[in-house]
Specification:
The chain is an alpha+beta fold. It has one domain. Helices cover 25% and strands 42% of the residues. The protein is built from three helices and five strands. The strands form two sheets. A three-stranded mixed β-sheet has the order 4-1-5. The longest helix is centred in the C-terminal third of the chain and has 12 residues. It is flat and about 55 Å long.
Length: 106
């Protein structure tokens, strides 16, 4: 059981110093000038019909609730980074902006 997620790379943080992991008064590990990539959910999902059956009918059930359910059952969340232009349509103003953008493509 798995869900494929398509993610956008939001940022790469590069620290100009060594970063130490500590526990009580001891250094456990360190990384010299590490960089970290962070991703954001692009809202594109691929899942099996079996997982769709796990979504309660006539009740709000966020995709992250389904992701939690998959993980609790020992399933996998698999991701693939995407590149290119992406528009959030999470609000009415975002959706209207996306429609304007699409109109200019014709």
């Amino acid at each position: 059981m798995q869900i494929w997620l398509y993610l956008l790379q939001i940022t790469r943080l590069i620290y100009p110093f060594a970063i130490f992991e500590t526990k009580q008064d001891k250094i456990i590990s360190f990384k010299e000038k590490p960089s970290y990539d962070y991703y954001s959910n692009a809202g594109i999902y691929l899942l099996t019909k079996k997982l769709i059956n796990d979504i309660p009918k006539n009740k709000f059930f966020d995709i992250t609730d389904l992701m939690d359910l998959v993980l609790k059952r020992g399933g996998n969340l698999v991701y693939k980074p995407i590149s290119g232009y992406w528009i959030d349509i999470g609000s009415k103003s975002d959706y209207n902006r996306a429609k304007e953008f699409i109109n200019h493509l014709n």
